[in-house]
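User: I'm putting together a small comparison set for a docking exercise, and I want a reference complex before I start. The sequence is below, and the ligand is magnesium ion. Could you produce the 3D structure with the ligand included, as structure tokens?
Assistant: Of course. I'll restate your input first, then give the structure tokens for the complex.
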Amino acid sequence: MKILLVDDSRTMRNIWRKVVGTPGVEVAEAGDGNEGLKVISEQGPFDLILLDWNMPNMDGITMAKKLRETDKNTVIIMVTTEAEKPRIIEAIKSGVNNYVVKPFTPETLKAKIEETMKKAAQPA
Amino acid sequence: MPGVQPLQFDASLVVAFVRSIKNVLSTMVSIEATVGKPYIKEGEKPGHDVSSIVGFSGEVKGNVVVSFGMDTALKVVETFCGMPLDATSDDFADAVGELCNMIAGNAKKDFGLNAGIGIPSVVIGSNHTIARLRDVPCIVIPCTCSAGDFCVEVNIKQIGNN
Ligand SMILES: [Mg+2]
């Protein structure tokens, strides 16, 4: 299992890492959308991406759209302070599989990841 | 200026931030914040030593500042990050900035407007000033928690389309 954490806050990436970083999981990090796409082109596709919305250089929505041009399989969960309904709809339209609003508890994030991965593994 | 009107210094704006402050701190840092009576800021002095600023865009203009006393910031960041951090480190500023990002973003959803938020910046020092909008009041929400005092300064206005 390969997981990519994309958030401009290193504090937030560390918190995510504590939730997902179990033995056997390979974790990579990026500080904005540009860096995220670069890591993917260098390291190949990931199974799961946790993606922030508000980041410098390239935001999470733009990164999700760009990634979906070539990759329909990687599960993307957006984790963001953006909590308005129209924003959530915009994210889902951009190809995001699921959505977690900051602030969150580790338990909420963990449950959302498990639920989303399970759903993605089911045949359409 | 035509088309520009202040977001009212009314209960709903304060309520949005109070709810957000309490929610962010209790969920991310397991700290219960108590909020005092909001007031309108006079003068330029910063609330406390460590301030993080997040700007608004879209239908809202202005910014929100979350300002901690140094001791409070050190304690809150230690709990948030799970380890003590030096106040001069990049990670310390990052943590303070992300807390402000969450407080601003979480309050924003209650505005009922199409607004965005920018990337947080952080200023440390006992004598910093932060530029603000002159045509709307800056609302200070004083807060206290087990780690000490902090405040949230809200200086925003709505950009109307009528
Ligand atoms: Mg961010």
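The mean pLDDT of chain A is 96. Chain A has one domain: 2-121.
User: Thanks, that's exactly what I needed.
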